[in-house]
Amino acid sequence: MPRLIILRHGQSTWNDQNLFTGWVDVPLNERGTSEATKAGKLMTKHECLPDTLYTSLLRRAITTANIALDNCDRHWIPVKRAWQLNERHYGGLQGKNKAEAAEKFGKEQVHLWRRSYDVPPPENEQDGNTDPDGRYAKGGIKVPKTECLKDVLVRVLPYWESDIVPDLKAGKTVLVAAHGNSLRALMKHLENISDEDIPGVEIPTGVPILYELDDNLKPKGGAKGKHLD
């Protein structure tokens, strides 16, 4: 029986500072490290031990996965990293304080940029360049100038079909450690969540969510993902 575990990274330093993060590569803070440790122990407790791991190219997801796997003794499993699993690019909002952005642009406008399905924030003033170490340029990846959730879905689903689905069809338990929006895009697909309802979906940091899938790789009985706690 294929099983999918999705895990949003633990709290980062910028989460704690209430900053828009997006593709900026920030580390976990102390709380985030603790959340990742607990995630690994929860996977052991519930006997949900992954056979393979997928992460984004951002360290907060990578570190969360590494710590979690170390705490469930699965540090040795195969790993694939993909930019398609990155957080959404917040464009010109990246690095800005969320409360200050609300004062500048208005609460309703910022809420629309943050939570709507198809309204992206303003473009990045630096031409969308969030590639200080060249990781994207070296891979021929064009960094977006801004993204909405709909844009994230467009990049996540082809990768899901090409890379993750074959592992699930082989009966493996797959762990995807990524971000709030890339995982919400995946949840939208799995649970057939409407465009109108997806803005209200929240994914907690550091909590593994388990999907037991049928032969069509849909949640059995139409069930929602189970939070492991």
From TrEMBL:
SUPFAM superfamilies, A to Z: Phosphoglycerate mutase-like (SSF53254)
Residues carrying the site annotation Transition state stabilizer: 179
Catalytic residues of the enzyme: 9, 87
Top-level taxon of origin: Eukaryota
Pathway noted in the entry: Carbohydrate degradation; glycolysis; pyruvate from D-glyceraldehyde 3-phosphate: step 3/5
EC number: 5.4.2.11
GO terms, biological process: glycolytic process
Region listing for Disordered, in residue ranges: 115-139
Keyword set, alphabetical order: Glycolysis, Isomerase
Residues that coordinate or bind substrate: 8-15, 21-22, 60, 87-90, 98, 114-115, 180-181
InterPro entries attached to this UniProt entry: His_Pase_superF_clade-1 (IPR013078), His_PPase_superfam (IPR029033), PG/BPGM_mutase_AS (IPR001345), Phosphogly_mut1 (IPR005952)
Reaction(s) the record says it catalyses: (2R)-2-phosphoglycerate = (2R)-3-phosphoglycerate
A molecular function (GO) term: phosphoglycerate mutase activity
UniProt family annotation: Belongs to the phosphoglycerate mutase family. BPG-dependent PGAM subfamily.
Protein name (record): Phosphoglycerate mutase
Provenance organism: Neohortaea acidophila
